[in-house]
Amino acid sequence: MFTIILQAQSASSPWTSAIFMVLIVGIFYFFMIRPQQKKAKDQKKFVESVKKGDQVVTIGGAHGRVAEVESNYFILEFERGVRIKFLKSSVSMESTKSVTEADKTNN
After folding, report:
1. In whole angstroms, what is the distance from residue 30 CA to residue 18 CA?
2. CB distance 101 to 95 below 8 Å
3. What's the CA gap between 65 and 75, in Å, rounded?
4. Residues 66, 56: contact at Cβ < 8 Å?
5. Comparing C-alpha atoms, which of 61, 89, 87, 60 is closest to residue 75?
6. Which of 49, 51, 48, 53 has its CA nearest to residue 64?
7. pLDDT tens, 20-72?
8. pLDDT in the model for residue 84
């Protein structure tokens, strides 16, 4: 059976192999690369739109309110007035979105 497959492959033209490779690259682009680029673009847009008073979640899972916005970082305020400085890239999502997504997974 393997000899039949090998003979069929050797009998095919080089154009068939080239078209097959182009299809594979196209599939990888549309199902892996493009969605990652879109997600990164949405994350960047979200981080730029965060303002003082927004409830956010960090990548580590800490929930807090934005107390100050600086050029490269946020100062988040947690319970009892604890304030911690985070890089802008460490903010994951809005707190309201995280609660909604958690409800969806629990149901």
Report:
1. 18
2. no
3. 9
4. yes
5. 87
6. 53
7. 999 999 999 999 999 999 998 998 898 888 899 999 999 888 899 999 999 89
8. 94
Distance CA 11, CA 14 (A): 9
Burial of 67 (0-12, 13-18, 19+ CB in 10 A): middle
pLDDT band, very low/low/confident/very high, at 105 (cuts 50, 70, 90): low
Q: String of b and e for 15-33 (b: at least 16 CB within 10 Å)? A: eeeeeeeeeeeeeeeeeee
Range 51-107 has CATH code 2.30.30.140? yes
Q: How far apart are the first and last CA of the chain?
A: 49
Predicted TM-score of the model (pTM): 0.63
The helix (H) or strand (E) run that includes residue 86 is strand 83-87
